[in-house]
Write a structure and sequence with these properties.
9 strands, alpha/beta, 19 helices, three-stranded mixed beta sheet, four-stranded mixed beta sheet, 453 residues, globular
Length: 453
Protein backbone atom coordinates (compact mmCIF):
# COMPACT_ATOMS: atom_id res chain seq x y z
CA UNK A 1 0.00 0.00 0.00
CA UNK A 2 1.10 3.57 -0.71
CA UNK A 3 3.12 4.79 2.30
CA UNK A 4 1.27 8.11 2.59
CA UNK A 5 -2.14 6.43 2.33
CA UNK A 6 -1.15 3.88 4.98
CA UNK A 7 -0.13 6.67 7.34
CA UNK A 8 -3.40 8.56 6.75
CA UNK A 9 -5.45 5.39 7.37
CA UNK A 10 -3.68 4.77 10.68
CA UNK A 11 -4.33 8.38 11.73
CA UNK A 12 -7.98 8.17 10.63
CA UNK A 13 -8.44 5.01 12.69
CA UNK A 14 -7.04 6.70 15.81
CA UNK A 15 -9.39 9.64 15.22
CA UNK A 16 -12.33 7.29 14.61
CA UNK A 17 -11.77 5.56 17.94
CA UNK A 18 -11.55 8.92 19.73
CA UNK A 19 -14.89 9.91 18.19
CA UNK A 20 -16.51 6.70 19.43
CA UNK A 21 -16.60 4.48 16.34
CA UNK A 22 -16.55 0.81 17.29
CA UNK A 23 -15.77 -1.76 14.61
CA UNK A 24 -14.00 -5.02 13.89
CA UNK A 25 -10.47 -4.62 12.47
CA UNK A 26 -10.36 -3.61 8.81
CA UNK A 27 -7.87 -5.09 6.34
CA UNK A 28 -7.30 -2.57 3.52
CA UNK A 29 -5.94 -3.66 0.16
CA UNK A 30 -5.21 -1.70 -3.03
CA UNK A 31 -6.26 -3.57 -6.18
CA UNK A 32 -6.28 -2.77 -9.92
CA UNK A 33 -9.45 -1.63 -11.68
CA UNK A 34 -10.05 -4.98 -13.40
CA UNK A 35 -10.00 -6.90 -10.12
CA UNK A 36 -12.16 -4.24 -8.44
CA UNK A 37 -14.79 -4.66 -11.16
CA UNK A 38 -14.70 -8.44 -10.78
CA UNK A 39 -15.14 -8.18 -7.00
CA UNK A 40 -18.04 -5.76 -7.37
CA UNK A 41 -19.79 -7.89 -10.00
CA UNK A 42 -19.28 -11.25 -8.29
CA UNK A 43 -20.12 -9.71 -4.91
CA UNK A 44 -17.15 -11.47 -3.29
CA UNK A 45 -13.40 -11.75 -4.02
CA UNK A 46 -13.80 -15.50 -4.69
CA UNK A 47 -17.14 -16.96 -5.70
CA UNK A 48 -18.64 -19.88 -7.59
CA UNK A 49 -18.19 -19.54 -11.35
CA UNK A 50 -21.30 -19.01 -13.48
CA UNK A 51 -22.03 -17.41 -16.85
CA UNK A 52 -24.47 -14.89 -15.32
CA UNK A 53 -21.59 -13.13 -13.54
CA UNK A 54 -19.87 -12.70 -16.90
CA UNK A 55 -22.98 -11.02 -18.27
CA UNK A 56 -23.00 -8.66 -15.28
CA UNK A 57 -19.30 -7.96 -15.81
CA UNK A 58 -19.88 -6.87 -19.42
CA UNK A 59 -22.84 -4.73 -18.32
CA UNK A 60 -20.67 -3.03 -15.69
CA UNK A 61 -17.90 -2.34 -18.22
CA UNK A 62 -20.44 -0.73 -20.57
CA UNK A 63 -21.79 1.45 -17.76
CA UNK A 64 -18.27 2.52 -16.81
CA UNK A 65 -17.36 3.32 -20.42
CA UNK A 66 -20.45 5.56 -20.60
CA UNK A 67 -19.48 7.35 -17.41
CA UNK A 68 -22.54 6.05 -15.51
CA UNK A 69 -20.77 4.00 -12.88
CA UNK A 70 -17.49 4.27 -11.06
CA UNK A 71 -16.35 1.94 -8.27
CA UNK A 72 -14.35 3.59 -5.50
CA UNK A 73 -14.29 0.73 -3.00
CA UNK A 74 -15.81 -2.58 -2.04
CA UNK A 75 -16.10 -3.51 1.63
CA UNK A 76 -17.12 -6.85 3.18
CA UNK A 77 -18.33 -6.90 6.79
CA UNK A 78 -16.86 -9.56 9.02
CA UNK A 79 -14.20 -10.07 11.64
CA UNK A 80 -11.98 -8.79 10.20
CA UNK A 81 -13.69 -6.59 7.63
CA UNK A 82 -12.11 -6.65 4.17
CA UNK A 83 -11.87 -3.41 2.20
CA UNK A 84 -10.62 -3.14 -1.39
CA UNK A 85 -9.56 0.27 -2.68
CA UNK A 86 -8.77 0.95 -6.33
CA UNK A 87 -5.13 1.71 -7.04
CA UNK A 88 -6.19 4.13 -9.80
CA UNK A 89 -7.93 6.46 -7.33
CA UNK A 90 -6.10 9.59 -6.30
CA UNK A 91 -4.60 9.82 -2.81
CA UNK A 92 -7.39 12.23 -1.84
CA UNK A 93 -10.08 9.84 -3.13
CA UNK A 94 -8.63 6.84 -1.33
CA UNK A 95 -8.28 8.85 1.89
CA UNK A 96 -11.98 9.69 1.70
CA UNK A 97 -12.80 6.08 0.80
CA UNK A 98 -10.84 4.78 3.81
CA UNK A 99 -12.83 7.08 6.10
CA UNK A 100 -16.03 5.91 4.39
CA UNK A 101 -15.07 2.26 5.02
CA UNK A 102 -14.62 2.94 8.74
CA UNK A 103 -18.19 4.23 8.84
CA UNK A 104 -19.38 1.04 7.09
CA UNK A 105 -17.42 -1.09 9.57
CA UNK A 106 -18.99 0.71 12.54
CA UNK A 107 -22.48 0.24 11.06
CA UNK A 108 -21.91 -3.45 10.32
CA UNK A 109 -20.77 -4.25 13.86
CA UNK A 110 -23.51 -2.31 15.65
CA UNK A 111 -26.63 -2.74 13.50
CA UNK A 112 -28.84 -5.55 14.84
CA UNK A 113 -29.69 -6.97 11.41
CA UNK A 114 -26.03 -7.08 10.36
CA UNK A 115 -25.05 -8.60 13.72
CA UNK A 116 -27.65 -11.38 13.37
CA UNK A 117 -26.47 -12.46 9.94
CA UNK A 118 -22.83 -12.02 10.94
CA UNK A 119 -23.42 -14.45 13.82
CA UNK A 120 -25.11 -16.99 11.51
CA UNK A 121 -22.30 -16.90 8.95
CA UNK A 122 -19.57 -16.85 11.58
CA UNK A 123 -18.08 -13.63 10.25
CA UNK A 124 -16.05 -15.51 7.65
CA UNK A 125 -18.09 -15.11 4.47
CA UNK A 126 -15.03 -14.78 2.22
CA UNK A 127 -13.58 -18.09 3.43
CA UNK A 128 -17.03 -19.71 3.26
CA UNK A 129 -17.61 -18.49 -0.32
CA UNK A 130 -14.16 -19.74 -1.32
CA UNK A 131 -15.02 -23.17 0.11
CA UNK A 132 -18.28 -23.15 -1.88
CA UNK A 133 -16.35 -22.30 -5.05
CA UNK A 134 -13.87 -25.13 -4.48
CA UNK A 135 -16.66 -27.68 -3.95
CA UNK A 136 -18.39 -26.56 -7.15
CA UNK A 137 -15.11 -26.75 -9.07
CA UNK A 138 -14.70 -30.34 -7.86
CA UNK A 139 -18.28 -31.11 -8.91
CA UNK A 140 -17.52 -29.75 -12.39
CA UNK A 141 -14.47 -32.03 -12.61
CA UNK A 142 -16.52 -35.05 -11.52
CA UNK A 143 -19.91 -34.49 -13.19
CA UNK A 144 -19.13 -32.09 -16.03
CA UNK A 145 -19.79 -28.40 -16.63
CA UNK A 146 -23.20 -28.89 -18.25
CA UNK A 147 -24.72 -30.77 -15.30
CA UNK A 148 -23.33 -28.43 -12.68
CA UNK A 149 -24.32 -25.32 -14.64
CA UNK A 150 -27.92 -26.57 -14.92
CA UNK A 151 -28.11 -26.78 -11.11
CA UNK A 152 -26.50 -23.35 -10.70
CA UNK A 153 -28.94 -21.90 -13.25
CA UNK A 154 -31.84 -22.96 -11.03
CA UNK A 155 -30.24 -22.00 -7.72
CA UNK A 156 -29.08 -18.55 -8.85
CA UNK A 157 -32.45 -17.88 -10.51
CA UNK A 158 -33.97 -18.35 -7.04
CA UNK A 159 -31.26 -16.58 -5.03
CA UNK A 160 -33.66 -13.88 -3.80
CA UNK A 161 -36.24 -16.45 -2.70
CA UNK A 162 -35.01 -17.07 0.83
CA UNK A 163 -36.83 -16.57 4.12
CA UNK A 164 -34.69 -14.04 5.95
CA UNK A 165 -36.54 -14.75 9.21
CA UNK A 166 -35.21 -18.31 9.27
CA UNK A 167 -31.75 -19.34 10.55
CA UNK A 168 -28.92 -20.34 8.25
CA UNK A 169 -29.07 -23.93 9.49
CA UNK A 170 -32.65 -25.24 9.42
CA UNK A 171 -33.96 -28.62 10.43
CA UNK A 172 -36.37 -30.52 8.13
CA UNK A 173 -40.05 -30.54 9.00
CA UNK A 174 -41.09 -33.18 11.58
CA UNK A 175 -41.83 -36.48 9.85
CA UNK A 176 -44.92 -37.03 12.01
CA UNK A 177 -47.60 -34.68 13.28
CA UNK A 178 -47.32 -34.09 17.04
CA UNK A 179 -49.80 -36.06 19.15
CA UNK A 180 -52.65 -33.96 20.53
CA UNK A 181 -52.21 -33.01 24.16
CA UNK A 182 -54.52 -34.66 26.67
CA UNK A 183 -57.28 -32.48 28.06
CA UNK A 184 -56.57 -31.32 31.63
CA UNK A 185 -58.71 -33.05 34.27
CA UNK A 186 -60.64 -31.26 36.98
CA UNK A 187 -60.74 -32.46 40.64
CA UNK A 188 -64.15 -34.21 40.27
CA UNK A 189 -63.03 -36.30 37.27
CA UNK A 190 -59.83 -37.34 39.05
CA UNK A 191 -61.86 -38.57 42.12
CA UNK A 192 -64.36 -40.34 39.81
CA UNK A 193 -61.60 -42.23 38.04
CA UNK A 194 -60.19 -43.42 41.38
CA UNK A 195 -63.49 -45.21 42.30
CA UNK A 196 -63.14 -49.05 42.37
CA UNK A 197 -64.33 -50.66 39.14
CA UNK A 198 -63.26 -52.98 36.37
CA UNK A 199 -60.46 -51.28 34.43
CA UNK A 200 -61.65 -50.03 31.07
CA UNK A 201 -59.66 -51.24 28.08
CA UNK A 202 -57.20 -48.73 26.68
CA UNK A 203 -58.54 -47.20 23.48
CA UNK A 204 -56.41 -48.08 20.44
CA UNK A 205 -53.87 -45.44 19.58
CA UNK A 206 -54.82 -43.45 16.53
CA UNK A 207 -52.33 -44.02 13.71
CA UNK A 208 -50.04 -41.06 13.20
CA UNK A 209 -50.31 -39.48 9.80
CA UNK A 210 -47.61 -37.61 7.94
CA UNK A 211 -48.49 -33.91 7.91
CA UNK A 212 -48.90 -32.16 4.56
CA UNK A 213 -45.66 -31.01 2.98
CA UNK A 214 -45.04 -28.20 3.52
CA UNK A 215 -47.24 -27.78 6.60
CA UNK A 216 -47.57 -24.07 5.76
CA UNK A 217 -46.62 -21.90 2.76
CA UNK A 218 -42.81 -22.05 2.52
CA UNK A 219 -41.06 -19.00 1.10
CA UNK A 220 -37.54 -20.37 1.48
CA UNK A 221 -37.47 -21.98 -1.97
CA UNK A 222 -33.75 -22.72 -2.00
CA UNK A 223 -33.97 -24.53 1.33
CA UNK A 224 -37.11 -26.47 0.39
CA UNK A 225 -35.69 -27.73 -2.91
CA UNK A 226 -32.41 -28.70 -1.21
CA UNK A 227 -34.30 -30.62 1.48
CA UNK A 228 -37.07 -32.25 -0.55
CA UNK A 229 -35.94 -32.46 -4.17
CA UNK A 230 -36.98 -36.06 -4.95
CA UNK A 231 -33.97 -37.00 -7.08
CA UNK A 232 -31.30 -34.50 -6.10
CA UNK A 233 -27.86 -35.89 -5.38
CA UNK A 234 -26.02 -34.59 -2.34
CA UNK A 235 -23.70 -32.32 -4.35
CA UNK A 236 -26.78 -30.74 -5.98
CA UNK A 237 -28.32 -30.09 -2.57
CA UNK A 238 -25.02 -28.51 -1.51
CA UNK A 239 -25.16 -26.10 -4.45
CA UNK A 240 -28.61 -24.87 -3.40
CA UNK A 241 -27.56 -24.49 0.22
CA UNK A 242 -24.37 -22.65 -0.80
CA UNK A 243 -26.34 -20.12 -2.86
CA UNK A 244 -28.79 -19.74 0.05
CA UNK A 245 -26.00 -19.07 2.57
CA UNK A 246 -24.49 -16.35 0.37
CA UNK A 247 -27.91 -14.82 -0.29
CA UNK A 248 -28.59 -14.59 3.45
CA UNK A 249 -25.20 -12.90 3.92
CA UNK A 250 -26.06 -10.21 1.38
CA UNK A 251 -29.52 -9.47 2.80
CA UNK A 252 -28.47 -6.85 5.42
CA UNK A 253 -26.45 -4.98 2.77
CA UNK A 254 -29.58 -4.91 0.60
CA UNK A 255 -32.04 -4.07 3.39
CA UNK A 256 -29.89 -1.31 4.94
CA UNK A 257 -28.34 0.29 1.84
CA UNK A 258 -29.69 3.81 2.45
CA UNK A 259 -28.83 3.74 6.16
CA UNK A 260 -25.43 2.13 5.63
CA UNK A 261 -24.24 4.40 2.81
CA UNK A 262 -25.60 7.43 4.61
CA UNK A 263 -23.90 6.48 7.88
CA UNK A 264 -20.59 5.88 6.11
CA UNK A 265 -20.95 9.23 4.30
CA UNK A 266 -21.77 11.07 7.53
CA UNK A 267 -18.69 9.65 9.21
CA UNK A 268 -16.29 10.14 6.31
CA UNK A 269 -17.36 13.80 6.18
CA UNK A 270 -16.88 14.21 9.94
CA UNK A 271 -13.57 12.36 10.03
CA UNK A 272 -12.18 14.48 7.20
CA UNK A 273 -13.44 17.67 8.85
CA UNK A 274 -11.67 16.84 12.11
CA UNK A 275 -8.52 15.32 10.54
CA UNK A 276 -6.14 18.21 11.20
CA UNK A 277 -3.24 15.98 10.07
CA UNK A 278 -4.34 16.13 6.41
CA UNK A 279 -2.61 18.67 4.14
CA UNK A 280 -4.94 21.47 3.08
CA UNK A 281 -4.87 20.62 -0.64
CA UNK A 282 -5.62 16.95 0.04
CA UNK A 283 -8.46 17.89 2.40
CA UNK A 284 -10.04 20.16 -0.22
CA UNK A 285 -9.75 17.46 -2.89
CA UNK A 286 -11.33 14.93 -0.54
CA UNK A 287 -14.22 17.25 0.28
CA UNK A 288 -14.76 17.81 -3.46
CA UNK A 289 -15.03 14.01 -3.85
CA UNK A 290 -17.46 13.93 -0.91
CA UNK A 291 -19.69 16.50 -2.64
CA UNK A 292 -19.69 14.41 -5.81
CA UNK A 293 -20.69 11.29 -3.86
CA UNK A 294 -23.60 12.78 -1.89
CA UNK A 295 -25.02 15.10 -4.54
CA UNK A 296 -28.70 14.37 -5.32
CA UNK A 297 -28.14 13.84 -9.07
CA UNK A 298 -25.36 13.58 -11.61
CA UNK A 299 -23.20 16.56 -12.51
CA UNK A 300 -24.84 18.78 -15.12
CA UNK A 301 -28.33 17.48 -14.35
CA UNK A 302 -31.09 19.47 -12.69
CA UNK A 303 -33.16 16.51 -11.49
CA UNK A 304 -33.16 12.71 -11.48
CA UNK A 305 -35.71 9.92 -11.67
CA UNK A 306 -33.90 7.77 -9.11
CA UNK A 307 -32.83 8.51 -5.55
CA UNK A 308 -29.11 8.58 -4.75
CA UNK A 309 -28.92 6.44 -1.55
CA UNK A 310 -25.76 8.28 -0.46
CA UNK A 311 -27.52 11.65 -0.68
CA UNK A 312 -30.74 10.47 0.97
CA UNK A 313 -28.99 8.58 3.77
CA UNK A 314 -26.47 11.35 4.46
CA UNK A 315 -29.24 13.98 4.62
CA UNK A 316 -31.35 11.89 7.01
CA UNK A 317 -28.43 11.14 9.33
CA UNK A 318 -27.37 14.80 9.45
CA UNK A 319 -30.96 15.73 10.32
CA UNK A 320 -31.21 13.08 13.07
CA UNK A 321 -27.91 14.14 14.65
CA UNK A 322 -28.84 17.84 14.51
CA UNK A 323 -32.36 17.32 15.90
CA UNK A 324 -31.84 14.47 18.36
CA UNK A 325 -28.12 14.11 19.01
CA UNK A 326 -25.53 11.47 18.21
CA UNK A 327 -26.67 9.12 20.99
CA UNK A 328 -30.13 8.92 19.43
CA UNK A 329 -28.58 8.43 15.99
CA UNK A 330 -26.66 5.46 17.36
CA UNK A 331 -29.90 3.93 18.66
CA UNK A 332 -31.43 4.31 15.20
CA UNK A 333 -28.30 2.77 13.66
CA UNK A 334 -28.65 -0.20 16.00
CA UNK A 335 -32.39 -0.85 15.68
CA UNK A 336 -33.60 0.08 12.19
CA UNK A 337 -33.37 -1.09 8.61
CA UNK A 338 -34.24 1.06 5.57
CA UNK A 339 -37.98 0.52 6.07
CA UNK A 340 -38.06 2.01 9.55
CA UNK A 341 -35.37 4.58 8.71
CA UNK A 342 -37.23 6.10 5.75
CA UNK A 343 -40.72 5.84 7.23
CA UNK A 344 -39.77 7.28 10.60
CA UNK A 345 -37.26 9.98 9.65
CA UNK A 346 -38.04 11.19 6.12
CA UNK A 347 -40.48 13.97 7.04
CA UNK A 348 -42.33 16.44 4.86
CA UNK A 349 -39.78 19.24 5.25
CA UNK A 350 -36.88 17.00 4.22
CA UNK A 351 -38.85 15.60 1.28
CA UNK A 352 -39.53 19.13 0.04
CA UNK A 353 -35.93 20.18 0.68
CA UNK A 354 -34.69 17.24 -1.43
CA UNK A 355 -37.40 17.84 -4.07
CA UNK A 356 -38.65 14.26 -3.91
CA UNK A 357 -41.61 13.17 -6.01
CA UNK A 358 -43.12 10.13 -7.70
CA UNK A 359 -43.49 10.00 -11.47
CA UNK A 360 -45.27 7.98 -14.13
CA UNK A 361 -44.25 7.05 -17.65
CA UNK A 362 -46.80 7.43 -20.43
CA UNK A 363 -47.19 5.20 -23.52
CA UNK A 364 -45.75 7.94 -25.74
CA UNK A 365 -42.52 7.98 -23.70
CA UNK A 366 -43.35 11.16 -21.80
CA UNK A 367 -42.51 11.18 -18.09
CA UNK A 368 -44.77 13.19 -15.81
CA UNK A 369 -44.58 14.14 -12.17
CA UNK A 370 -47.30 12.14 -10.42
CA UNK A 371 -47.36 13.05 -6.73
CA UNK A 372 -45.43 14.77 -3.97
CA UNK A 373 -47.46 13.05 -1.25
CA UNK A 374 -45.05 12.06 1.53
CA UNK A 375 -46.41 8.53 2.02
CA UNK A 376 -46.30 7.90 -1.73
CA UNK A 377 -42.69 9.12 -1.89
CA UNK A 378 -41.64 6.91 1.04
CA UNK A 379 -43.27 3.83 -0.43
CA UNK A 380 -41.82 4.50 -3.90
CA UNK A 381 -38.35 4.54 -2.34
CA UNK A 382 -38.99 1.34 -0.39
CA UNK A 383 -41.03 -0.64 -2.95
CA UNK A 384 -37.97 -2.25 -4.64
CA UNK A 385 -36.80 -3.52 -1.24
CA UNK A 386 -39.84 -5.61 -0.32
CA UNK A 387 -39.10 -9.33 -0.11
CA UNK A 388 -35.49 -8.88 -1.23
CA UNK A 389 -36.78 -7.21 -4.41
CA UNK A 390 -38.38 -10.46 -5.63
CA UNK A 391 -42.04 -11.48 -6.09
CA UNK A 392 -43.47 -13.28 -3.07
CA UNK A 393 -43.52 -16.93 -4.16
CA UNK A 394 -44.15 -19.81 -1.75
CA UNK A 395 -44.23 -23.58 -1.98
CA UNK A 396 -47.93 -24.35 -1.46
CA UNK A 397 -47.96 -28.12 -1.90
CA UNK A 398 -45.80 -31.12 -2.69
CA UNK A 399 -48.30 -33.45 -4.32
CA UNK A 400 -48.23 -37.25 -4.08
CA UNK A 401 -46.89 -37.62 -7.63
CA UNK A 402 -44.02 -35.25 -6.84
CA UNK A 403 -45.54 -32.19 -8.53
CA UNK A 404 -44.31 -28.98 -6.92
CA UNK A 405 -47.00 -26.28 -6.67
CA UNK A 406 -45.88 -22.71 -6.14
CA UNK A 407 -48.23 -19.83 -5.32
CA UNK A 408 -47.60 -16.17 -6.07
CA UNK A 409 -48.89 -13.94 -3.27
CA UNK A 410 -50.05 -11.33 -5.78
CA UNK A 411 -52.45 -9.66 -3.32
CA UNK A 412 -49.83 -9.12 -0.60
CA UNK A 413 -47.05 -8.55 -3.11
CA UNK A 414 -48.77 -5.77 -5.03
CA UNK A 415 -46.66 -6.63 -8.08
CA UNK A 416 -47.35 -8.71 -11.14
CA UNK A 417 -45.09 -11.31 -12.68
CA UNK A 418 -43.22 -11.14 -15.94
CA UNK A 419 -44.74 -14.32 -17.37
CA UNK A 420 -41.91 -14.94 -19.86
CA UNK A 421 -39.25 -14.56 -17.20
CA UNK A 422 -41.22 -16.67 -14.69
CA UNK A 423 -41.60 -19.43 -17.29
CA UNK A 424 -37.82 -19.46 -17.83
CA UNK A 425 -37.21 -19.77 -14.08
CA UNK A 426 -39.71 -22.65 -13.93
CA UNK A 427 -37.75 -24.40 -16.69
CA UNK A 428 -34.57 -24.08 -14.63
CA UNK A 429 -36.33 -25.42 -11.53
CA UNK A 430 -37.89 -28.32 -13.46
CA UNK A 431 -34.47 -29.51 -14.62
CA UNK A 432 -33.40 -30.14 -11.03
CA UNK A 433 -36.78 -31.02 -9.49
CA UNK A 434 -37.37 -33.58 -12.28
CA UNK A 435 -41.11 -33.58 -11.67
CA UNK A 436 -43.79 -31.15 -12.90
CA UNK A 437 -43.62 -27.63 -11.47
CA UNK A 438 -46.69 -25.35 -11.40
CA UNK A 439 -46.91 -21.67 -10.52
CA UNK A 440 -50.31 -20.17 -9.73
CA UNK A 441 -50.61 -16.40 -10.18
CA UNK A 442 -52.82 -13.84 -11.95
CA UNK A 443 -52.59 -12.23 -15.37
CA UNK A 444 -52.57 -8.58 -16.35
CA UNK A 445 -56.33 -8.26 -15.82
CA UNK A 446 -56.22 -10.16 -12.51
CA UNK A 447 -57.57 -13.34 -14.12
CA UNK A 448 -56.21 -16.66 -12.75
CA UNK A 449 -53.06 -17.79 -14.55
CA UNK A 450 -51.10 -21.01 -14.18
CA UNK A 451 -47.59 -21.51 -15.56
CA UNK A 452 -46.17 -25.01 -15.80
CA UNK A 453 -42.92 -26.77 -16.60
Amino acid sequence: MNEALGAYIEALERLAHRLGLDYHPVDFELVPATLMTEIAVYGLPVRMAHWSFGVRYIHQLVRQSMGHSRIFEVMFPGDPCRAYLMDGNTLAENTLVAAHVLGHADFAKNNTLFARFHEMAGGNIIEMAAAHARRIDRAIEEFGLERVEAVLDAALALESHVDVDQPLHREPYPARAPRPKAEPKDAFRERFERLPDEPAPEPPAAPQQRPPLPPHPERDLLWFIAQYGPELEQWERDVFLSVRAESLYFYPVFACQIMNEGWASYWHARLLREADFLPQDLYLSSIKSHSDVVRPFAAGEQSALAVNPYHLGFTLWEHIVEQHGLARAREVCRDEDDFGFVRNYLDRDLAEQMDLFTYEGRPDGEVRLARRDLDAVREAILAPKFNYGAPRIAVAELQTDGTLRLDHDHAGDGRGLDAARASKVLEYVHRVWRRPVRLVTVGGRQEPLELTA
